[in-house]
Write a structure and sequence with these properties.
This protein is of the alpha/beta class. The chain has 13 helices and 12 strands.
Amino acid sequence: MDILFFSLRGSMYRYFAMLCRELPLQTRLLDFSPTFYYTRGAPAPSECDVALGIDFQLQRKRCKYRAPEWIWKIIGCYYSLQYRRFYRRFYYLIDREQPKCIALWNGHRLPEFAIKQLAREFNIPVVHFENGLLPNTTTFDLNGVNDRNSLPRCASFYRAYKPAHASTPIAERELVTRKFHRAKRAHAGQGEFFAPLPGKYIFVPFQVKFDSQILLNSPRIKTMYELYNWIEYVAENSCDNSIIFVIKEHPSDPHKYTDLYKNHPRIRFSNRDTQELITKSQAVVTVNSSVGLEALLLHRPVVVLGNACFAIEDLSYPVTSKEALVNMIDKLKGWQPDVTLIEGFLSYLKEQYCLPVSWRNPDQQHIDAVTEKFKTVLAGGTRNGSQIT
């Protein structure tokens, strides 16, 4: 067996099913449904592995729902039993199939934690698929996704990179428009959210409150209320009293921050097009949203408050405190983009790192690129999380 794919039923499952049909490799696709497998003799996971496996799941549920502590203890016990069940089941399957490689989507669900633990024990490389870092691309990475991916974190690496093709002019770069969550479509379309933008402002994109980016890769800011507090602190302490901060709620987040809409005279909320909000802004301040990458595409300064693959000195402006954020905002007036660095970074993503074409609309170019990446992994040169190029 060359590749063993695992996925929940849904759009990602259908994508993996298509790859299993099209790839010239020996593959099999399995889902997480509670199918019975004979697992006698399969070892049990350690208590430490179980705790690590369920911790993120509990964090995410706590962000989405409110419940008494005794409820969370019951849910924790349930997750613990589920993790053990997944571990034993997948131990049996991996031991039986003996795959040379395992492929997952994102890798943050409970069964995927168990699969990755088993992959380490069997010394099998794990490929993580995810939405691409650039428009109309897909991620394929052995290390993980988002901040845990394998991209180099050194500015000199990207300055030295020689693009194989000329870059697209900034005026021709188009971002992917996100649809609003059904719970906030009517609310988001209200006229007050499409008021004319101020002449000078900093754009602050909110993120989904239970997103793994916030839970795993943001050590200082754990909620959008905390992000708002940081922005409010800057508004009160910045030397430039004329700058307005424009916030856009994440289209996919059902939560509405109505209690913040008119909380500060220099902080406004808008639902205008993200590309317009980026292009007309003085800068973008983000925890670690993909909007930061989109801002780099449009050559706008990006201030990063969390952990991100683009939080690289000179490429962006990583800051770790409210005071540092104030100082950074006050220094942005004379900012000029390091075009060589930015375009080197973007060209490397496009030409070496990302798979061409989104997984939602794969074509033959996409399938050929996936095939070549998997062949590289199967050749044995990229085991133990090393990068694929």
